[in-house]
């Protein structure tokens, strides 16, 4: 890599994660160029060639074989192959971004972290929903004391749609990183730990509502944080009606917001960073702050602008300048630890 030249990135996997959640940010950030994309699916390979004509389309083995010529390898592959792929890329000298779920086990996480330490290369996990506009708003309200002392944090991420029987998320077992707790739960647990610090798992309710899946599609967990906050985290693919995205209760006020951050739907329709209105939430969807018994009026709080592009800006700074990575892999390991514990607790 010459000084000032774009960082050469390779993406392994060109499904939803690679195509929608990684390629747009690498493409729109001048610090990067997509040099290679690995996919074994012919239709996805055609999509990759059309969208990124400057990238070489390779097999995973071929891309990893060239990882020494890359500055960054992005793993948008299923979680049970992350350990092998990440270690290979790190040992070749590339920095690594791993999409969530990070890995299926704490042992896998520890092995990858050890490989990054040995290679002296940046390693980070794509916990992109730290940059959701609604979560940024909650963070500001908590940190500025607008709610007083928080005692309960409720976070819900629910959807309703066809079961993912034909996708790896619905086919693999929890031992391989499958299930709603690894998928959406990785976001909710990470957000709770980011806001309120270390926590102990108290309750885990996991259920496969629809038949024919390799893992659960509906889950609830309760965490007790060392600072005294209790987090109630609910996730589902079978919720015909969704609860509030966040309800945060303090001894001075509360905050409730519905709906999901708009960056994912924007990205799915090709509305990339730099497009007008990207990351903005309409006023009609802002959350409410106050007390609903009349003591304190319920007032809309402008939702902060979502900022997924900030993740890759920090990745570039970590590679070029040695700045901290956007998400510490050791923090992501703690999310994996809680998910492991939840599966063990639910199996009793």
Secondary structure category: alpha/beta
Q: Separation of termini?
A: 52 Å
Q: Whole-number radius of gyration? A: 20 Å
For the sheet with most strands, the description reads: 8 strands, mixed
Strand adjacency order, main sheet? 8-9-10-7-11-12-13-14
**Separate helix tally:** 11
Shape: globular
β-strand number: 14
* Range of strand content: 15-25%
Poorly predicted spans:
none
Q: Output mean pLDDT.
A: 94
Proportion of residues in helical segments: 25-40%
What are the secondary-structure elements, in order, as H or E? EHEHEHEHEHEHEHHEEEEEHEEHH
Summarize the structure.
The chain is α/β, with parallel strands linked by helices and 348 residues long. The protein has eleven helices and 14 strands. The protein is globular, with a radius of gyration of 20 Å.
Outline the structure in words:
There is one protein chain. By secondary structure, the protein is α/β, with parallel strands linked by helices. 35% of the residues lie in helices and 24% in strands. The protein contains 11 helices and 14 strands. The chain has an 8-stranded mixed beta sheet. Strands 3-2-1-4-5-6 form a 6-stranded parallel beta sheet, sandwiched between helices. It is globular. The N and C termini lie far apart (52 Å). The mean pLDDT is 94.
